[in-house]
Amino acid sequence: MSGADEEPRVALVSGGSRGLGRLLVERLLADGWRVATFSREPAVGLGVDAGGGYDESRFFWGRADLTDPGSLRAFVAEVQRRFGRLDLLVNNAGRLHEGLLLTTPLTKVTELIAVNLTASVVLAQCCAKPMVKNGGGAIVNVSSINAIRGFRGVSVYAAAKAGVDGFMRSLARELGAFDIRVNSVVPGFFDSDMTSHVPEQQRKRIEGRTPLGRLGTAQEVADAVLFLASPAARFITGQSIVVDGGITC
């Protein structure tokens, strides 16, 4: 995605050790980006284990915890030290807990807000500063249709993701003058770790309620994220792109 005479752009993807995040890391690397990602533990095959093979000049993995703002700030600082710039943040990492609010411990509520909302705010604040110095950039938040349509048992997760979308719209206003675009991708039900436990009968019901008649794929969600990160979306900011096969229409 960079020209032959241009310095490769740098992307930071949270939660890049597996699932959608890992796919985004791989596709960004294939497109010529330099990519940084973090997780609490190394992921086999992602260039951070004994058998990994990514070029260290193009890929960096570090250890960080979404519930620890200090570790997030330290990770962003290290990315800047290694690569000298930052052009794209994908706030992809998230954690789902299913359970009725009346029986959810306060510690779990606090954790869900920290992981799904506060971490995105902290990372955006840290990453926007080098983007201002670079003369522009893009922030893409991965939200959820739980933010726009009520589902039983996920009220805290839904509240956090709705917060991410509200944060996105306000931040787009703040950062537009610096040529930094801020958008959200709002996935519906797609094949992922979060949906792997869904019983087959429930899966069939979801597919039946979806106009396109199936669950999505991680590739389809990644397509939307990478579109918003690309020059093709250079006049799009403050928007939520819903990728759900029509289930919320």
Automatic annotation (TrEMBL):
<dbReference type="GO" id="GO:0016491">
    <property type="term" value="F:oxidoreductase activity"/>
</dbReference>
<dbReference type="InterPro" id="IPR020904">
    <property type="entry name" value="Sc_DH/Rdtase_CS"/>
</dbReference>
<protein>
    <submittedName>
        <fullName>Beta-ketoacyl-ACP reductase</fullName>
    </submittedName>
</protein>
<keyword id="KW-0560">Oxidoreductase</keyword>
<dbReference type="InterPro" id="IPR002347">
    <property type="entry name" value="SDR_fam"/>
</dbReference>
<dbReference type="InterPro" id="IPR057326">
    <property type="entry name" value="KR_dom"/>
</dbReference>
<dbReference type="InterPro" id="IPR036291">
    <property type="entry name" value="NAD(P)-bd_dom_sf"/>
</dbReference>
<comment type="similarity">
    <text>Belongs to the short-chain dehydrogenases/reductases (SDR) family.</text>
</comment>
<feature type="domain" description="Ketoreductase">
    <location>
        <begin position="9"/>
        <end position="189"/>
    </location>
</feature>
<dbReference type="Pfam" id="PF13561">
    <property type="entry name" value="adh_short_C2"/>
</dbReference>
